[in-house]
Automatic annotation (TrEMBL):
Residues 75-221 form the AAA+ ATPase domain. GO terms for molecular function: ATP binding; DNA binding; DNA-directed DNA polymerase activity; metal ion binding. It catalyses: DNA(n) + a 2'-deoxyribonucleoside 5'-triphosphate = DNA(n+1) + diphosphate. This is DNA polymerase III subunit gamma/tau. It comes from Sinorhizobium fredii (strain NBRC 101917 / NGR234). GO terms for cellular component: DNA polymerase III complex. Residues 434-444 have a biased composition (Polar residues). The lineage of its organism: Bacteria, Pseudomonadati, Pseudomonadota, Alphaproteobacteria, Hyphomicrobiales. The gene is dnaX. Keywords: ATP-binding, DNA replication, DNA-directed DNA polymerase, Metal-binding, Nucleotide-binding, Nucleotidyltransferase, Transferase, Zinc. Residues 421-457 are annotated as: Disordered.
Length: 645
């Protein structure tokens, strides 16, 4: 066969030797009939919510609000969606855009009933609709991007009802971009809607928030996530263990997307099934039942058993930091069960955790649980930042076991007082110990006995235990003589100040004497006296009084008078301030002057005249006489106390 024949297309017509045309039989070629497998879609994309009914998992308040708004036609021009990662902000924005542009043969209006796909639904959910513009503010942060939006909003949508702008991570916009968007956001054209999404709502200017309807998308509870995961795995025909799904839900921390990504990884890790052991090894988690055992060793104070249990979990592949974190979670669960017994119904925890947690809640004191919690909060960062996390975690466990049975500060103080024969914990003197068969008669001394010092343990500041010898009250020698009536001790007299202080005026004079003009001004202008006695001052303050006035006054009074002062704020109105009293006195003098016939005649004689000040001449002369007397006393002419005839 000629080589040229091999190059002819299969099934072509050829000329024979006789010159006639004939059809050449097609030469069979090895055409592959195996179809390429469809591209795999991860669970987070495959089961992404498509309508509001799917968003009912954890976001019921938002769905209810939007339902009522669409039914009544109260559709806002802008929406702000905020929440942590993976709770459905972008998905909700697309569903909202789909609801705004919903159109079928029967329905042509915005609605939340999206059970039947509309003309624009698929394109909007795929992110390729011409009238639904999605912009990532993380990469379009400048004013030029916002200026482009402002120029485009003037044009009507191409095919949809509304032109919808979805701006994700809106908090990344610059200040100039936010300012440029304000006017359009407040009064956009009727055919334009804005939907913003952000994880940092505090970074969004209040001027933007005030122009939007805000929806806070909540974290999805662990029980809702477990239900979502089980529904998806049933559709995927994947075997699973409920305990494994609970582990994934806890690791997701309220994020559906994070949970589905972990679930995808768990299916691959388990070879087509989701089992507890495979999930635990994948996440580096410890066995939750063994965490409970570790908690039990700690509350018993058994450090050796706690270290042995931790070593076994560490050898099994558990992360030391995760062990401490799980221990803190279980401590929190036990504390909650102590006050909220319904917490035992939380399905995100295993049966062992719920059952044994209830047992610990009834037996472990709150002070112990609180101490364990606080020490774990400080120990977890230590293990995370340590070069040897396992060693750091072991040191934390040793501290926990050692501190489990330490008494609280109140208990330690009470025990010391009881053993030392001092006051009891309630502030009353400790009762004297008497023997029932050794009673002393009046005038008959009792034989002295040797004194034995009883060692008393007392926790030191660094956690070590110190011993202090305390005399045993029962072993002390007691000599009983004649019983005599002793006069009751008179109560200690109150300390008197070096300088008498009986009024706010005295305090102001004391400030002037010590040349503290600032404090004198504050006392005169803001202090309203309620009650005063040596060592105690109750006052009310006028508006705008400095917050530090009372503390400063207490310090100065102690310095100037030599006794301790308690200066407290009272809600009673109190007397007027010195400034207010002087103003009222001046007003009264002016009114009295107006009533004087001579003054009234002068005011009538000169229209427009007014009284600006009133001075009492007798008082001024008295002040001048006192000043003159003081000067003469200084010269030696007249000294107070001299007899003048």
């Amino acid at each position: 066969m000629p080589a040229s024949h091999l190059l002819r297309p299969v099934g072509t017509r050829v000329r024979t030797a006789a010159g006639s045309m004939s059809d050449e039989a097609p030469i069979s070629s090895p055409v592959s009939t195996v179809e390429k497998p469809a591209a795999y879609r991860v669970l987070a994309r495959k089961y992404r919510p498509k309508d509001f009914s799917d968003l009912m998992v954890g976001q019921e308040p938002m769905v209810r609000t939007l339902t009522n708004a669409f039914e009544t036609g109260r559709i806002a021009q802008a929406y702000m969606l905020t929440g942590v990662r993976g709770v459905g902000k972008t998905t909700t924005a697309r569903i909202l855009a789909r609801a705004l542009n919903y159109k079928t043969a029967e329905i042509d209006k915005p609605t939340i009933d999206l059970r039947i796909p509309g003309e624009h639904c698929q394109a909007i959910m795929d992110g390729r609709h011409v009238d639904v513009i999605e912009m990532d503010a993380a990469s379009h942060t400048g004013i030029d991007d916002i200026r482009e939006i402002i120029e485009q909003v003037r044009y009507r949508p191409v095919s949809a009802r509304y032109k919808v702008y979805i701006i994700d991570e809106v908090h990344m916009l610059s200040t100039q971009a936010f300012n440029g968007l304000l006017k359009t956001l407040e009064e956009p054209p009727e055919h334009v809607k804005f939907i913003f999404a952000t994880t940092e709502i505090r970074k969004v200017p209040i001027t933007v928030l005030s122009r939007c309807q805000r929806f806070d998308l909540r974290r999805i509870s662990a029980s809702d996530l477990v239900g979502l995961f089980s529904t998806i795995l049933n559709k995927e025909a994947v075997r699973f263990e409920p305990e494994a799904l609970a582990m994934v839900a806890r690791a997701a921390e309220g994020s559906a997307r994070d949970g589905l990504s972990l679930l995808d990884q768990a299916i691959a890790h388990g070879g087509g099934s989701v089992e507890m052991e495979t999930v635990r090894s994948m996440l580096g988690l410890a066995d939750r039942a063994r965490i409970v055992d570790l908690f039990e060793h700690i509350v018993k104070g058994d450090a050796a058993a706690a270290l042995g249990e931790f070593a076994a979990q560490y050898e099994a592949g558990a992360n030391p930091t995760v062990v401490l974190t799980d221990l803190a979670d279980f401590t929190h669960l036990v504390t909650r069960m102590k006050y909220v017994p319904e917490a035992a119904n939380d399905q995100s925890f295993s049966e062992i955790e719920r059952r044994r947690g209830a047992e610990f809640a009834g037996s472990v004191a709150v002070t112990t649980l609180s101490r364990i919690w606080q020490m774990l909060l400080k120990g977890i960062p230590e293990a995370e930042s340590s070069a040897r996390p396992a060693g750091a975690a072991e040191m934390v466990l040793i501290r926990l076991a050692h501190a489990a049975h330490l008494p609280s500060p109140e208990e330690a103080a009470r025990r010391l007082l009881e053993l030392s024969g001092g006051e009891a914990g309630d502030g009353r003197p400790a009762p004297a110990r008497t023997s029932g068969n050794t009673q002393a008669q009046a005038g008959q001394p009792v034989q002295a006995r040797s004194v034995e010092a009883a060692p008393v343990q007392r926790p030191s500041a660094n956690g070590a235990t110190m011993l202090r010898a305390v005399p045993d009250v029962a072993a002390q020698p007691i000599t009983v003589g004649r019983i005599e009536d002793r006069p009751a001790q008179a109560p200690a007299a109150k300390a008197e100040p070096k300088v008498p202080v009986n009024s706010v005026g005295d305090i102001a004079d004391l400030c002037a004497k010590n040349r503290d003009i600032k404090l004198k001004t504050l006392v005169r202008g803001f202090l309203r006296l309620v009650h005063i006695e040596p060592g105690r001052l109750d006052v009310n303050l006028s508006d705008d009084a400095p917050k530090t006035l009372l503390n400063e006054l207490a310090v100065k009074l102690k310095e100037w008078t030599g006794i301790h002062w308690v200066v407290s704020y009272s809600r009673e109105p109190g007397e007027p301030t010195l400034v207010e009293a002087e103003q009222r006195a001046q007003e009264q003098r002016v009114n009295d002057a107006r009533q004087d016939p001579d003054v009234a005649a002068i005011l009538a004689r000169f229209p427009g005249a007014r009284i600006t000040d009133v001075r009492i001449r007798a008082a001024e002369e008295e002040v001048e006489d006192l000043a003159l007397a003081a000067a003469e006393s200084a010269d030696g002419d007249i000294v107070p106390g001299d007899d003048i005839e």
